[in-house]
Amino acid sequence: MNNKESRKINLYGASGHAKVILDIIASTGDVEVAYFFDDDESITSLLGHEVLSPSDHQDQLNQYPLIISVGSNSVRKQLVNRLESNLFSKALIHSSAQVSEAIAIKEGSVVMPLAVINTSSIVGKHCIINSGAVVEHDCELGDFVHISPNATICGGVQIGKGTHIGAGAILIPNISIGENCVVGAGTVVINDLPNHTKAVGNPARPIQ
Ligand SMILES: CC(C)(COP(=O)(O)OP(=O)(O)OC[C@H]1O[C@@H](n2cnc3c(N)ncnc32)[C@H](O)[C@@H]1OP(=O)(O)O)[C@@H](O)C(=O)NCCC(=O)NCCS
Fold this sequence. Notes:
By secondary structure, the protein is α/β, with parallel strands linked by helices.
């Protein structure tokens, strides 16, 4: 594979989230997208790029490593499990994001414009750190976590796998959020949340 070929990736998922990932890719120039795919055959183009049906284009699908460009944590996880033999081995980070050298960020994760990840934090696989979100120092995020735009995760917070933190939410320092939780937009979380909790408000209260 020549240099140019080795920089190519495929995107799987062609909705709004994929458009932002395209902006990340354009901002760094480290990789370029060869083919776009979506399971929904009614989606045929994305920002002028042809979107292919994966079942009809297996050769192209297998030709380059994939980034799963889907915002939903559960759908992204299903696709990762289905397509795990051919996934991109790095994270994608927008050039305007402020990411400390002293963090670990695992494969398939994406960091959107103006996000901040401070020192000594760990971001799991296939996470989304959305536009303007702040992940302070010494945080630990499990796989498939989504931190929505402008959410603030203060220092020393732990977030279990599959959890979605809504837009503009605030998590005070040193708390622990369980797996597969949902924290509503604008919620202020001041205590630990057990697995599978959905919480809203200030201070956060669990809802069904
Ligand atoms: C938390 C959330 C998932 C709840 O959705 P839901 O399960 O459909 O809940 P409902 O809309 O039925 O609301 C249930 C109750 O919670 C309240 N509620 C819902 N979201 C709330 C929020 N963010 N803040 C405060 N209260 C909220 C509703 O007013 C309702 O209260 P009531 O029972 O007293 O009438 C959703 O409202 C939310 O905030 N999602 C985050 C979206 C987001 O940030 N996306 C970012 C994409 S990049």
